[in-house]
Amino acid sequence: MDLADIISGDQRLAVVRQPIAHDSAVKHVTGQAAYIDDMREPTGTLHLAPGYAPIAAGRVTALDLEPILKAPGVVAVLTAEDIPGHNDISPKEVGDDPAITPERVNFYGQVLFCVIAETRMEARRAVKLARIATAPSMPVIDVDDALVANTTVLPEYAFVRGDPIVEIPQAPREITGEFRIGGQEHFYLEGQIALAIPGEDGDMYVHSSTQHPTEVQHVVAHALAVHDNAVTVEIRRMGGGFGGKESQATQWAVLAALAARKTGRPCKLRLDRDDDMIMTGKRHDFRVDYNVGIGKDGVIRALDVTLAARCGHSEDLSLGVIDRTMFHADNSYFYPTCRILTRRMRTNTVSNTAFRGFGGPQGMLFAERMMDHIAYVTGKDPLEVRKANFYSGSGRDRTPYGMRVEDNILHELVGELERTSEYWDRRKALAEFNAASPVLKKGLALTPVKFGISFTLIQLNQAGALVHLYRDGSISLNHGGTEMGQGLFIKVAQVVAEEFGVGIDKVKITATSTALVPNTSPTAASSGTDLNAQAALVACRQIKERLFDFIQETWNVGRDRVQFRDDRVIVGNREMKLGELATAAYEARVQLSAAGYYKTPKITWDRAKANGRPFYYFAYGAACSEVTVDTMTGEMRVDRVDIRHDVGKSLNPAIDIGQIEGGFVQGMGWLTGEELVWDSAGRLRTHAPSTYKIPTASDVPADFRVALHESGGNREDSIYRSKAVGEPPLMLAISVFSAITDAIASLKPAVMPRLDAPATPEAIMRAIRATTGGDM
Amino acid sequence: MRQTIRFIRKGHMVELDQMAPTTMLLDYLREVERATGTKEGCGEGDCGACTVAVGRLKDGKLAYEPVNACIHMLGQVDGCEIVTVEDIAEDDGKLHPIQAAMVQSHASQCGFCTPGFVMSLFTLYQSTDGKLRRDEVNDWIAGNLCRCTGYRPIVDAAVAASAGTRNDRFRVAARDTAGLLSFLADNDDVFIGDSDRFFAAPATVDGLADLYEQHPNATIVGGATDVGLWVNKQLRDLPKIIHTGRARGLDQVQDTGYELIIGGAATYATVEPFLAALDPDIGELLRRLGSRQVRSRGTVGGNVANGSPIGDTPPLLIALGASVELRKGKRVRTLPVEEFYIEYGKQAREPGELLTAILVPKLDETHIFRCFKVAKRFDQDISSVMGAFRFTVGEGGIITEARIAFGGMAGIPKRAAGAEAALQGAALRDSRAWARAFAALRDDFQPLDDHRASARYRVETAHALLGKALIEAAGTSTSRTRIVGRREKVADGSR
User: Fold this and answer.
1) pTM for the whole thing?
2) Chain A residues 216-275 with CB within 8 Å of chain B
3) Which of A114, A155, A261, A748 has its Cα between 20 and 30 A from that of A453?
4) Is 0.90 exceeded by the ipTM?
């Protein structure tokens, strides 16, 4: 059966497209869903607490751990000398990120040693007893410091089309701007954790709350100096990941495994929340400088932008992250001539890492800010400017990296939202409100999202799955994707249940394990379902192929007369339970297990030439946000949000809406209340929920309207023509930032408010003062 | 004296005679009971993942309140019922209405915060009747963070579960549970440990004062919403804990007609209706202060006594002209709240001296009162700047007295002496007096930069808040001056 047939026969789908609850929903609400810290520990399990550098840069000149060893409950202290293999947790194994730094300190919070004790509290208390002597040097803290010091983790990289330096001044109008984009703490509710259990022959079994079990396996093996096959990594579920457990879960698993090796006992490391926030990386923050030439119509002629990112002390995933910033610096807009330059700055701060959107949101925020800038200085409505610059037909459909936008639905999607959100009526009403309201000012903005789907590191676009059909007709499902709450497991299970025509209850979802499906990619880039559901489908089809052959031989019925549905198998005129068929097939010695494999077609990317088709397709969306700003205090409230988001043909609309709303609110937090503050010594001052404020329930707009965009489905041959939905909705929140800008812009015509992200009350007040010419 | 603590779990009494003084309820649940449904998200009472329901008798009736188990000392649960996420479904597995609605609404994603939400909503379910408004639910779950869902489905679930009659088995068993709890409610002092390491909860104020005088180096614990962090985050060893919550009468509020006498151990939840009745702004301030979990255990006395420069109640109490009552052994003295604060980290409380009450004069018709809280987040955030204003207006609209106090502007909660003087004797609408007050305010404070706000923003915001107070006092509707906490709306119960 061809996928196109499935689409045309949508009405026959019994499980796919249904709003089925998350597979663990009942376990979540009853407290029965077990996370790693909830597992019953093996007898004799020891607990770890890392001790970290009290300076941001310099050297440790003396480390006296004797007082720790005398403390109650302490069994041992792990140091760099205890590492038999590689002391490097960097994802690409470039050697710039030690698990335990031997001497040189690159950021405040870098691990110097790790206490192993009978209880977690004993380990944590003992950490404080270390006597650490240091020789500090001058740290490089933020992007500006790094630009001055010219410290980088990677060479700069640009997409260039034409010659903007020549063309910008020739445009009728030239606009120059600069602004800052803040980082973001993941704040997964379950902090970083790993439990390592030593086995025979030097084997290590690691439970790790990770989005990338295969990488944990590799790095643990290299640290222990054993083969990959000696290490098994398992994860049933994470209490949130958001990118923060893509590369940065590894260190804690490595330390637990090293301690287990050293002591011969199971070892668990669960980071305290404050330590977690101090010691793990965040979304990259940026300084953006742009110069754009536009026509009288507000359409961009040529553009030159430099985006400088704080990468932290090591490379980590910054290459891919900052590349993705470039891939989305166009968002939905055609740049005829452009240079998109990125600088990847090295600082003495924790290494920044993946975070939902993977650099894309920062690129997109730049594009939207530039649209606002064009609108306010030319006196046009921002939505008109946006629409005038959209990618469109031939000649205006090629991205700065050479890929044609073939599946463009921006015009219809945005047009629909413009209508349903009553943008123009509200625009008028807002102007009237603002004219009559001296203190409170409202703002409105409608912004689009176009997000490229595929890992831009091409090799990661592959996946494996393992499906077993048992003799009673029950099915076991395993694949390389990890569950962090996004609903991947239920979506893949839906696809499998649909294939065999059984209810979802017949499909057993099993923990991700490197022993079952090897060489997996991280669950990231929104690709989890696209890759793993396809691999699972392939596995199911292999088993079904064998069953079709068996049916042909046994009952002489061709596959065209066989159906798997309603918990039955219909074979010609005969009907049987799946279990009966499985049993019969088993007795005839038919293999009822299969490993499926999938790789994304069509994609290419030549980074050196900055050209190719890195994305299989684009996911689209748009949001319209209305806010009220208190111009006396800078406080802000989001009053109403309308969202229209493209998920192709949804595999599970309930899960998809959850991703859209959750992503939006997380993005709103990034751009409003969530502020990371480092002091001049490089210490993070916002390292707990008491000081770092993610949105609460009352921050969600009281009027929140979310619709799935009814399109014909993904044009590409994705799983059931659905589209990836993990990351794109986060960027819908840029509409809130633009709406705040709009409210401030109402104070003075023809001035672009200088607003930096996040738009905290203080940032808003600063922008208000800058706009009205006051002092602040 | 009783050398055990006793509480109810799953319908049965649990009695413990061994307990480290600072053992937290969460550790007991997860490590002793192995009831791992309740999670630790932050260990400081800010994320709510560890929320459990604590049942206790209030005026003879069973009431369930949400509590952050991570910063709740096990000794504090003496005499209470503890209900966790594992306990609320029926024995046959049928979900509690809150749980069923959460599943139905797709209200969990990663699921780690979910037990805390379920238990917060469980207490909401038990505490109310009739269909809930979304803003009521938002308030109730302000102390629960979810990073996945965006909250909408969680609020949907709460609203949906509130639509039916509230007849879960906890309601059905309420009278029996109340009976069990009254059986536990004895008049004994609780003391576990020896004279070097102990957890004590005297049953009387006299007993409390005597014990503290004997052990002036002990740590006084009201709700433990602050002390819990000393244990979990600063890893302090606190060998002697004296808990105030058992001292009879100390957790009450008395209304004498012209003043409120707030007992030193009265929780925010107990105090809230009394203070909110003075002025809607105070109700709004208390709604936004901490979270439901923090307010159900945290005490106003503790907020005043620990002397934080960013606590929200001290500026409020200073503007209201309140005093504190301090007791050491048998000696009792009072002093105005502003005189209690000497400098950062230093209060006028002697070793062994206990804060036993706060005396708050009520507002009368000559007073115009306003207070404002400005923070990065509206709910459950510590203020960047908090301002409280009481203008006494005499004949001819003349301000006869101005009491203006700010938090976040100095090392202590402090009055704006210069601004007060500039307004004293001026007409309420005298814009020149306003200008003098604004100018004076700049000299009243030299705030600091920190991660919450810059000094500059604090100065600007203090100015803005004084301006707002004056504009509103002069008659402007708060629908034109505020985006949250509008007085018109607070008065009619919605926001």
Assistant:
1) 0.97
2) 237-242, 272-274
3) A155
4) yes
